[in-house]
């Protein structure tokens, strides 16, 4: 995923979570101690927010900052489960390959 894709995902997640929590852009801005214009700019992908701004938004939304970058359909738990499954599959593939190499040698 390129930088623009990450920025779009960040914007979509902030907007979605903000709405789920029943917050306006103004209310989120107040809670995050940043300007409403900054929230609008982030949600519209006009500017890439600083690390500090992202942290302030995550804190105001009362979520782990990682959730702002996850795919919309995935929760953090689903993301971790996918990572674990991929690791297991890769290890299994390496093991099978090594066994086959031994048998065929």
Summarize the structure.
With about 100 residues, the protein is mainly alpha-helical. Helix content is about 70%, strand content about 0%. The protein has helices at about 5-20, 25-30, 35-45, 50-60, 75-105.
Instruction: Tell me the series of helices and strands, N- to C-terminal.
Output: HHHHH
Instruction: Name the average pLDDT.
Output: 88
What does the largest sheet look like? Answer: none
- Uncertain runs are none
Supply Rg.
Answer: 20 Å
- The tally of strands reads 0
Q: Find the structural class using helix and strand composition.
A: mainly alpha
Describe the overall structure.
The protein is mainly α and 105 residues long. The protein contains five helices and no strands. The longest helix has 29 residues. The chain starts with a helix and ends with a helix. The model has no long low-confidence stretch (mean pLDDT 88).
């Amino acid at each position: 995923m390129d930088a623009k894709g990450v920025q779009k995902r960040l914007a979509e997640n902030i907007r979605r979570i903000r709405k789920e929590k029943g917050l306006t852009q103004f209310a989120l801005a107040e809670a995050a101690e940043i300007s409403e214009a900054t929230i609008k700019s982030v949600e519209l992908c006009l500017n890439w927010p600083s690390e500090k701004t992202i942290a302030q938004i995550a804190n105001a939304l009362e979520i782990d900052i990682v959730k702002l970058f996850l795919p919309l359909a995935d929760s953090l738990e689903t993301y971790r489960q996918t990572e674990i499954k991929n690791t297991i599959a890769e290890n299994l593939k390496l093991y099978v390959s090594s066994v086959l190499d031994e048998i065929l040698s």
